[in-house]
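Hi all, a correction to my earlier message: I attached the wrong file for DJ-1/PfpI family protein. Here's the right sequence:
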Amino acid sequence: MNPWPRRVLTTILTLTVALATLAGVAVAGAVVTTRSMHQPVPTRSHPAASTAVPSTGPGSLAGDVSGQNGRRLVVAFVVGTGGTIASDLLAPYDIFSSSPAFRTYVAAADAGPAPLEGGPAVLPTYTFADVDANPALTPDLVVVPALTRPSGSSEAPLRTWVTRQHDDGARVLGVCTGSLVLAATGMLDGLHATSHWSRIHALEADHPRVHWVRGRRYVEDGSVTTSAAVTSGVPAALHLVAELAGPAEAQRVADLHPELRWTPTETTSIAADHFTGSDWPVGLDYVMPWFRPTVGVALRDGVGELDATAAFEVYSQSAAARTVALGPGDTVRTQHGLVLLTTRLVHAPHLTRVLVPGTRTSGAFDARLRAWADNRHLAVERLADRSGPDGPGGGGFAAALQDLADHTDGATALTTAKMVGYPAGGLHLGSRHRSWRTVLLGILGLALAVLVGRAPVALARRRRPMRRAEDSREGSVSPASQTRGSA
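and the right structure:
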């Protein structure tokens, strides 16, 4: 018999099983990584959130700043029941809340803690029913972050509420893939809109009535504004502050975060990004999450929302480490009044190190954190932007990306900056350090795939001599039996 067909079939079987095994390992890793982005929501009771109060610190204007018609404009941020992208919510919330021209709050379908993907859970300020029952809370602007299940039935109440507010005259800002939520309502039909660069191709197929735009930080069409990747929600928010409260007020708010380098005349044009071969470190981190470090992010009362979310977002997008929100108690209240759920220091899991966002100190907690970290032999690092003078907030995404580069490598930090849409020019992301954890795991995964792929062939080869032996024994017995039979 010609051995070539058998060899071809054997090779095809080996490759098929090996690739299936490798794909299974990658899928399992991706599931683990995705689940780790959702920090568990504690079931214990929490104090009710209160209406956020604009900052009255040194950065505020001496006089009142009014929005349209001489009154403070109401900005409602919605959160979903199944998960909301933390940075899409917290970063723009910081921007609008930093101006006394706006009154901000977070609204949800129910009053329970709302899970944030890539960050700690948040307590909504009001429910949709609360807002509907109080005319003073009627929003002038609704901010829609990206949701984990944007078109799912569980988020139908949110989509209905946002649509009704828009129909009643409210402006709408969709942050990143918050555009998926808006597209699902039909609100974007016939309009120009943008979204995260990695999703626009699919959106063009799913929602052909929308004029999807690439290469723009944000797109405004009538009363609806949509922004590109994650951090683009910040310049989009500043643009709306400039429109509604004036360019001077928008510049004042931007100056609270000098690392943004924002001005009212800044262009909306950006690179039309796409995945390239140089993004492989983040891809490998995403599918090989085992044995990765766990980083504690220590939050305290008064922390800025943008600073608080930056480290969570950067490390969740890079998949280089798992993050845990730490606090002196079960909750912390941010600079502008949001209540975030945290893990007490005494209940913290095993950690690799601890990051402290923001440069403002909080005496007693800082001392307690330092003592606790020293007892555990943990390094405590403050996140501060090294590309320029430290702003009041401590560097936000710039500092987080620099920290990521220091502990992984420049390629990982650059890919992560691309994923979150942060302009990396001027940042010090040239670290050559590289963790070999994912590389070794990748090699082990390939080795496992090869072994599993060759297993059927090895078993077949092992059975072949056994069959030959059995056939040989049967052949030696058969003639004797025939002889006895003839006698």
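Sorry for the mix-up. The chain has two domains: 72-260, 277-435.
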